[in-house]
Design goal:
By secondary structure, the protein is of the alpha/beta class. The protein is built from 12 helices and 13 strands. Bound molecules: adenosine-5'-triphosphate. Adenosine-5'-triphosphate binds next to strand 2 and helix 1.
Length: 302
């Protein structure tokens, strides 16, 4: 199976402002794809383009191989949670789901199943949404997205308003969904949340994709930075072990291996270590921190 969600060179301009700048990424079946970026990065805009709610200026997005708007009965195939607070405040949760079931043509018995799935009691389901907590609204939004048992879920900040237990619940729900072959694209502005749930991560900042890959790849260290009493000798010892070594400008070496291997090589070479650390262990975190810091600065100046 190919990509269930494909965003292909999408640019979105609002007048002179470019909200999305040549954005491309995919979400694949059987995986949770985390869409990570600080406030205002363009996550919601990109998800709205995927769901056919915002037209791209150039480029295109497809779901299940075609533009969302051209899917026959898209509600049956794609579950959306784009704005949990947009639900009609005067309706009860049950009414919202029943209406959703009628509109997508799914069996109304799914309403009770779905309520149970998201942990809303029937007493809660019979309350008006204006009296819901944010967490309950979020659960109802997830219920609405799951109602038609879709193959694809697109969820914008689904963890907002959930307490730690709620977040854990959502994580296992989405994991199960992906393990059954479903495709999940979910956004968050919190790295910690995304890295715990996502198989793949797409990082967006200022309307551009700044990194993407598997979570393991993005979090993995890329080599080891080492400083020793005799770097030249250590470099030879590492080369003897077929480890690629480059000199770090600030002093020391970057070895394309793990710290333990560098330590062993140093021991054999009789060289004392002055510094030893994973090269880019904090790469994703630092990159994300920089993105967040620069957008916070822009925010403060605006
Ligand atoms: N209709 C619009 N007209 C003009 N600018 C818009 C419009 N919609 C979004 N933007 C701008 O596009 C940028 C991206 O917004 P978007 O909501 O996609 O970001 P986000 O990553 O979802 O952020 P957040 O986490 O705050 O929801 C923002 O600067 C926003 O002000």
């Amino acid at each position: 199976m190919g990509d269930m969600i494909s965003v292909d060179h999408v640019t979105k301009r609002y007048g002179a402002f470019t909200a999305l700048d040549d954005v491309s990424f995919e979400a694949r079946p059987g995986r949770v794809t985390g869409f990570l970026g600080p406030n205002g990065a363009g996550k919601t805009t990109a998800m709205r383009v995927v769901a056919g709610l915002t037209p791209a200026t150039t480029g295109r997005a497809t779901v299940l191989g075609r533009p969302y708007a051209t899917l026959p009965n898209p509600g049956r195939h794609v579950g959306l949670l784009l704005d949990a607070s947009a639900q009609h405040a005067g309706r009860t949760g049950r009414e919202v789901l029943t209406l959703g079931a009628i509109l997508t043509g799914v069996d109304r018995r799914r309403v009770d199943d779905t309520l149970e799935l998201v942990g809303l009691t029937s007493k809660e389901a019979n309350r008006r949404i204006r009296n819901y907590s944010l967490g309950m609204r979020q659960r109802l939004g997830i219920a609405h997205a799951l109602l038609a048992d879709p193959e694809v879920l697109v969820l914008d900040e689904p963890a907002n308003g959930l307490d730690p237990a709620g977040i854990r619940w959502m994580r296992s729900l989405l994991r199960g969904f992906a393990e059954r072959g479903g495709t999940v694209l979910l956004s968050s502005h919190l790295l910690g949340e995304i890295e715990r749930i996502a198989d793949d991560i797409v990082v967006i900042g200022g309307g551009r994709i700044v990194a993407s890959g598997t979570t393991a790849e993005l979090l993995a260290g890329s080599g080891t930075v080492v400083r020793s009493t005799d770097d030249a000798r250590l470099a030879r010892a590492l080369a003897d072990r077929a480890v690629a070594v480059t000199k770090v400008e600030a002093g020391g070496l970057l070895a394309d291996t793990d710290p333990a291997t560098v330590g062993q090589a140093a021991l054999h070479a009789g060289v004392a270590l002055l510094e030893l650390r994973g090269g880019d262990e904090r790469g994703l975190e630092e990159m994300f921190f920089e993105l967040t810091a620069s957008s916070a600065r822009e925010g403060a100046m605006a």
